[in-house]
Amino acid sequence: MDRKYRIDTDENREFLRKNAQALLDFGRRFPSPGGGSYYLGDDGTPWKDRNRETWITSRMAHVYSIGAMLGDPGSKELAGAAIRGLLGELQDKKNGGWYAGLTKDDEIVPDKQCYAHAFVILASTSGVRA
Predict the structure, then answer these.
(1) Nearest CA to 90 among 77, 103, 74?
(2) Which domain holds residue 52?
(3) β-bridge partners, 53
(4) How high is the pLDDT of residue 119?
């Protein structure tokens, strides 16, 4: 078996480090001006014609919080952008909780989802930890 797939080898640590870095590099262009997360194309280009989903924004907050804990330059700021999106454009300040997302035209996606709220919990705990 290739040593990069064996836990606790130098080759495995380097394999994991390179893959983590590639994932962090891929997603760097996710934030909208309001902090919500754009969907990304295969090359990391933001798809501005699609909804900005709360669960994706939360996931990006989680990922870049981990990046910040790993010492990746720029990850702290990206995690902060996603958290600003969760505390700003995606939060339902009137009724509490979070919208499912926003459309490309900044209209609220009306239904609330437990799924999205679970991701907000993940994002917030990751952000606090970072």
Answers:
(1) 103
(2) 3-129
(3) 101
(4) 97
Distance of CA 42 to CAs 27, 46, 47, Å?
Answer: 10, 10, 10
Q: What are phi and psi of 52, to 5 degrees?
A: -100, 110
Distance CA 29, CA 35 (A): 11
CA 124 – CA 73 distance, rounded (Å): 20
Q: Are 54 and 98 in contact (CB under 8 A)?
A: yes
Taking residue 89's Cβ as centre, other Cβ atoms within 10 Å add up to 20
Say how many domains are in the chain.
1
Q: What is the mean pLDDT of each run of 10 residues along the chain (130 residues)?
A: 94 97 98 97 97 97 98 98 97 96 94 94 96
Q: How far apart are CA 32 and CA 41, in angstroms?
A: 15
